[in-house]
Design goal:
Length: 488
């Protein structure tokens, strides 16, 4: 059955709008999700004119230099085209990486639902395009330079190619699935566990000869990625071996998270009770048999991370595209029966819409980003003294030389006129420094709405997400430089 022009047009309108939202999010929201995001990637590549491939490779510890080198190629190209300011380079990096992630994941979703017959095929592809473009977390998370976000589209592509293999039984799709999984694992080694899904799929399909192909191509990928590591850092899989050794270090029982953290996370991400119903007329076999590889990829990744000792929510970012694929038949069912489930769709639209608006407009670590912009606009400031609790100071976004130093208490080195003191305003240290007669407050930067909400809910635990106060010695105030925007 030929695809009606109207359905094609609807699909491309929704996909184009989603791509535009990713573009705008990348340009307007330079937020930093985690300290590792900054320390292991951003600070190693910005500004592009101050780094080299050799330097980035030498700084690799237990994380592969593959991800920072990927971003370095983008920002180095931007610099070659005349972009000198590090923050502008960063925005270009987010745009390129985000749009690549969007379109590769969109292709993966269209491939997965390509196994459906029309008109269900285009209908589910359109619903998936809507989820990918407008699910509240996707535009922000999939445009970040984190290893988790960089691996996500390759994991989605690998699952999609496995679906194509299941549908056609042609070995070339299995080979391509392994290669895509290997590239993703070079960003985030953990997704390599999904190779078990490919083994299970081959056994399920009883393609016994393809087990040898899977083993051979998989071994070749392990050797090739190890050779790349050897070429970059002089050790065969050196970063991976160090990472495994690090995670084998025993941890105190109190440092271990509950086994239910990640399963409950995905329950919450489904925005209950929107999808919680019996689906009595849904043909589960017809809808989810073509998605069997997606399920097989999802489960071992989730189980492995459920069992490891250290858990952070961002570890689940690689599963986000697969999660959206698994939600697609359920949302398509609700839309097809919208007269019966009108309130669920309304609830989903309103809650997701509010969360989406907050996510794309609220830059994570906004207060510290504003601190960097303040220092960038004041070239006379060459030192930032962080006093008390840890503050992430993204000095790479400052276009002139600046040093960030850290101390538990205010010392003489922090009282020079060439620097400022930065402190979390809601902490006891912040209150003490605000009352110190030697200092005067010159600026204070507030977090975004989401982080402000987290601080209001639990001010003690989330103080690091709160406002950042900037102080200077009273004797230097008369010589305080003016403010402005140094970005070009």
């Amino acid at each position: 059955m030929e695809d009606p022009p109207a359905s094609r047009r609807t699909f491309w309108i929704i996909a184009g709008a989603g791509a535009l939202l990713y573009l705008l999010t990348a340009i307007t929201n330079p937020g930093i999700i985690a300290a590792d995001d900054y320390g292991d990637v951003i600070s190693r590549v910005l500004p592009a004119q101050a780094h080299s491939v050799q330097e980035i490779s030498e700084k690799a510890k237990f994380r592969s230099p593959f991800t920072p080198l990927t971003h370095f190629a983008i920002v180095k190209t931007a610099h070659a085209l005349g972009v000198d300011h590090p923050l502008t380079q960063f925005r270009i990096d987010l745009v390129v990486a985000g749009l690549f992630s969007f379109f590769l994941t969109l292709w993966a979703g269209c491939t997965v639902f390509g196994a459906y017959a029309e008109p269900d095929r285009r209908r589910h592809q359109t619903v998936f395009a809507g989820l990918l473009g407008f699910y509240f977390l996707a535009p922000l998370l999939l445009t970040r330079p984190m290893v988790e976000a960089m691996s996500a589209p390759f994991l989605a592509a690998s699952a999609a190619l496995a679906c194509r293999y299941q549908m056609t039984l042609k070995t070339r799709w299995l080979v391509l699935s392994i290669l895509s999984l290997a590239i993703g694992a070079m960003h985030r080694p953990h997704i390599g566990v999904c190779a078990l899904a490919l083994v299970a799929l081959v056994i399920w399909l009883r393609r016994w000869k393809d087990l040898a192909v899977l083993a051979g191509v998989g071994a070749a990928c392990v050797i090739a990625s190890g050779m790349l590591d050897y070429w970059l850092i002089g050790e065969w899989h050196g970063t991976l071996r160090r990472y495994v050794a690090y995670n084998l270090i025993p941890t105190a029982p109190g440092d271990r998270s509950s086994y239910f953290v990640f399963p409950l996370l995905f329950v919450g991400l489904s925005l209950p009770p929107a999808f919680f119903l019996r689906y009595r007329t849904l043909d589960w076999k017809a809808r989810y048999d073509p998605l069997r590889p997606v399920v097989l990829f999802f489960v071992p990744f989730l189980v492995m991370h459920t069992l490891v000792r250290h858990k952070e929510e961002r570890f689940m970012i690689p599963l986000l595209p697969l999660f959206l694929m698994l939600l697609t038949p359920l949302l398509a069912f609700l839309i097809a029966h919208r007269d019966r489930y009108r309130w669920r769709l309304a609830f989903l639209g309103v809650v997701n819409g509010v969360l989406l608006a907050l996510a794309v407009t609220s830059a994570p670590q906004r207060a510290t980003l504003e601190l960097a912009r303040y220092v960038d606009a004041n070239p006379a400031i060459t030192t930032i003294s962080r006093v008390g609790d840890f503050i992430l100071v993204p000095t790479v976004f400052v276009s002139h030389p600046v040093t960030a130093r850290e101390s538990k208490e205010l010392d003489d080195a922090a009282l020079g006129c060439n620097g400022v003191v930065a402190v979390l305003a809601l902490t006891k240290t912040g209150e003490a420094l605000a009352a110190d007669p030697r200092l005067t407050r010159v600026a204070e930067f507030d977090p975004g709405p989401l982080e402000r909400l987290l601080v209001a809910i639990n001010p003690r635990h989330n103080a690091r997400r709160g406002p950042v106060m900037v102080l200077r010695p009273v004797d230097c105030v008369n010589r305080e430089p003016g403010t402005g925007n140094g970005e070009q």
